[in-house]
Amino acid sequence: MLRPEELGAGEREHWRELRAKSAAPRNPFMEPEFTDVVGRVRPRARVAVVYDGGEAAGFLPYERGPLGQGRAIGLGVSDCQGAVLRQDLVPHPRELLRACSLSSLAFDNLEAEQELFVPYAVEEHTTFVIDVGDGYEAYERALRERSPKFLKTTLAKERRLGRQVGDVRFVFDERDPAALRTLMEWKSAQYRRTGRRDRFAQEWISRLVARLAETRAPECTGTLSVLYAGSRPVAAHFGLRSGTVLACWFPAYDTEFGKYSPGLVLHLRMAEAAAAEGIGLLDMGRGPAEYKDSLKTGELPVYEGVVARPGAGAALHWLGREPARRAHGFVRERPRLASLAARTLRGAARLRRS
């Protein structure tokens, strides 16, 4: 068990080689650079290194809490989780937890190829993806066939934005720190507006995003994309990209320009730029949203659950998370209840602002 910064160059290279051999999309959340940055803002971050024949053959990044309660690295913000293992290496999950001095290990975005932990999942969720592997033109043709009105309307709004506000300009990899601060302010306002917890009010998340914005690695690069109208930013997104996957993470827009649907325009331009960079997949993450339904070409499963060893730590995990998780699941599975819950959250948010 090591702190992420204690991993040697050889171990990091083994990690990357194992990910390269995986059949799963090369999501940047599963790279050593993401774990390293989490370790710099979360002091309980660890990496278990599994050796076989004197060679590093597996890695399990995690965070360790009280009584050995473990959680996937960056749980709550990381959109892809799991162990990185040599394909023929199949340790017993509970033995692995025992070696890590963990009583449990919780995950909420476990990738589908994680055969070691998928049997312990209690819920399956959907992550929405945009496939631009055949180029942006092919994606746009598919959109025209599937949702001709959506694409026509969005492109018309983009042209109207240019006429009424200023020439539309898109930057795929913006390096201006002020643009990142603007995005975070928009996103915080969106969280408050919808009654959700403001992630950027948590210092460690703000620090994590700021550090990742400076991260430049072949398979994990912080990427800030901004849509401008004239000199004004009107929509922005911060995510991570590998050579083949753009993990969509924090999108937001200036509500003053909401009638132009700048967030949708931004995602189309991101898909176009990603395809030009050789990126074949945009992962928009789990959770239903109208814009995801409009933009997606497919869906992938991700899993939520916990691996636990008998003991006090596992019992505490169950008491702390399971009742709330079941309540959320009950509401999600009933559209009328979910709609009522969303309206209630928005109403509560308006009351707090007033």
Automatic annotation (TrEMBL):
What region holds the BioF2-like acetyltransferase domain?
Answer: 152-292
Keywords attached to this entry = Acyltransferase, Transferase
A molecular-function term among this protein's GO annotations: acyltransferase activity
- As recorded in UniProt, its EC number(s) are 2.3.1.-
- InterPro entries xrefs: Acyl_CoA_acyltransferase, BioF2-like_GNAT_dom
Against Pfam families, the record matches this protein to: Acetyltransf_6
> According to the lineage, what is the superkingdom?
Bacteria
Its top-level enzyme class, in one word, is: transferase
UniProt-recorded name of the protein = GNAT family N-acetyltransferase
